[in-house]
Amino acid sequence: MKILKNKYFILGNIALLLAAIPLTLLFISRQQDVRSRAAPTTTISFSPQTISFEGDQCSAQTTTVKIDPGENLVSSVELFLSYDSTKFDITIEPNESAFPEVLRGPTYSNGQASVVLKIGSSVENAISVPVDMATITIVPVGATTDDPATISIDSSKTRVLSLNTDSDGITENVFLSGGQAAVNINAECIDGNSIAVSPTPSGTVSPTPTGQVGGANPTATPTVTGGPTASPTTTTSPTSGSNQAPICNTLASSPSASGNAPFVVTLTAQGTDSNGTIAKATFNFGDNTIQDVFSGLGTATATTQLSHTYQTQGTYSASVIFTDNGGAVSSACTQQITVLASNGTTTPTPTTGGIVPTATATPTPAIESPGGIGTTVAVLGGLLLVILGGLALIVL
Q1: How many angstroms separate the most distant Cα atoms in the chain?
Q2: Is the peptide bond before 22 cis (omega within 30 degrees of 0)?
């Protein structure tokens, strides 16, 4: 075709290509930026990283837990710590100025401690710069030998949730890594801090005078009758009843449980806890997407909802479980979601006798003849490109 050899057509196409390349690169960079903002770049560390109990430093000492959000906007943290409980005890004091809401804990059990912190309901409180998350108070109970004892972030359990989402709009765990602190405890500190328990005499004390009867300075030596109590009395803290797991009552979907892809569905879950409060709801949408919800919880009876988009045709089993403030987990409520093809499907109407006809549509390929519609469209497209190219040249 002569039009393909026209210099204006060629120049117009070149101009369009020159304009399309930077626009494409800008689009790709923005897409990558969206993904990076929800990347796991958040770290948690201790300061100082070495705590020594020796000399005149034998009383309780502290270390600060710091969180660096990296490229994220942190909204909540599930912090899990591991420590050597045979060498020291710890107490977690959350920084309420950074995390006003304590959803669960602090709890301590056999060298494990945990606390769940949240920024509150305002997104303006999101953590975007490094801050102090909590203060750990350490009290020594046993001396270390060659190797120091440690307190560390349990990376297998610790979770950090961000206000940012990935390219699919899903809130992910953006926790990258956690550090640890070394604790050195000198035996002299343990000996010096140990509490000596003196025997408690019982019975009556009778002085036995010595020297001359009627003397001016008789000396009395007390005689203890009855058995002394040689060992301290151990006070056992009352143990509360076992924590009862919460109950998931319902899981409903709206506007319906089926629709054409992409299908947007809102799941609404309701749960109760008989001896505590519900701290977390975990939604599993059945398409390898799992998301935790903390907002709006913290009560014995809680209702929460979450929206999700199913992109692919299929049948999915969505579910939700509740976790209470004691760490107990409920059984799951489930809801089946059916996603049809993007153009929908039709249900054949049964004919008389209950026989359902099966209709198979066979696409008829379009046959293009020389000089037909296809050629006309190509020519018109070429002319349009020439016009756009000419405008681009004028602008340039």
Answers
A1: 147
A2: no
| pLDDT given for residue 10 in this prediction | 72
Q: Do residues 104 and 116 touch, judged by C-beta distance below 8 A?
A: yes
Q: Which residue has the tokens 């006070």?
A: 235
Spatial distance between the Cα atoms of 323 and 104, rounded to a whole number of angstroms: 10
Q: Where are the alpha helices (DSSP H) in 89-162?
A: none
Residue 254: CA atoms inside 13 Å, Cβ hemisphere, count? 5
292 near 315, Cβ under 8 Å? Answer: no
Identity of residue 234: T
Distance between CA 227 and CA 339 in Å, rounded? 81
Residues 322-361: b if buried by 16+ CB within 10 A, e if exposed: bbbbbbbebeebebebebeeeeeeeeeeeeeeeeeeeeee
Identify whether the C-beta of residue 149 lies closer than 8 Å to the C-beta of residue 111. Answer: no
The structural domains of the chain, ordered by start, are 42-191 (2.60.40.680), 247-340 (2.60.40.10)
∠ CA 5-15-371, rounded to 5°: 40
- Token pair 């692919």 is at which residue? 312
Rounded to the nearest 10 degrees, how much is the dihedral formed by the CA atoms of 153, 154, 157, 158? Answer: 10
pLDDT band for 205, please (50, 70, 90 cuts): very low
- CA distances 268 to 241, 249, 347, Å, are 31, 11, 29
Strand partners, 387: none
Residue 5's SS3 state is helix
At 333, list the tokens: 């409520």
**Angstrom distance (rounded) from CA 56 to CA 383:** 89
- pLDDT tens digits, 226-252: 444 444 444 444 444 578 899 999 999
